[in-house]
Amino acid sequence: MAANVQDVIMLLGDSITQGGWEPHGFAQQLAYVYNRKLDVVNRGMSGYNTEWIIPVLEQCFATRDDRAPLPTVRLLTIWLGANDAAQPPTRQHVPLAQYRANLRALVRTVASPDSPRYSPATRVLLLTPPPVSEPMWARRQAEKVPPRALDRRFDVTRAYADAVREVAGELGVHVVDVWSAIWTRAGEKEEGLAEYLRDGLHLTESGYNVVFEILMEAISTHFPEMHPDKLQPVFPYFDEIDDEDPRSSLQKRDAFAT
Fold first, then answer.
1. Which of 10, 38, 165, 203 has minimal CB crowding within 10 Å?
2. pLDDT at 1
3. Is 249 part of the annotated catalytic residue set?
4. Catalytic site residue 202?
């Protein structure tokens, strides 16, 4: 087994997170700015809701009794809700009260000292789901074979975004308000969402640019020590290598060491 040499940023979510690896997606941009300092691990699972992602997160963090060497997750972003907000009888639907409870469970998995997977070095950011364009998504649903009914509602998804803010405040974690940022950029008009949503639900390149921008703002504000400009590369830049004894200067370093 190859040893992991860098700590990581873990992105937990649904297809919107999974799509962060698309060209110019927010995950791709994160991987670029944190290159050689922190690895970006994308655990975006298309179609998943908070109920289904909990076992995934549990398997991403070692328990206290697990002695297998694992990298430290320095930052965990949790970005779900777009599927939870789907309307019944869609099987992805999670009632709002249970959605709140699931968000609490996800955060406490790594942030609570009582959790067997407690990770004191991990910082957590909750992201709100983006707005939904009902006309765009209705057209997308109608194009499917067989055609499907509209199962996402603007006001319902907004209520799930509100729930993320509420849970973040309750647990004392920071929130990245994707909903408000994109809705504001869209001029608070449904037709303005076309620039940021490619099908009424998933993000365009412009949408991912907004997410990357506000995510980096949150890191700078709340976790400034984690900003890429404050970290050193795990292995030195080429002009720092000792020509007389290269091996001695090519030892792994702590990216956070000053």
1. 165
2. 41
3. no
4. yes
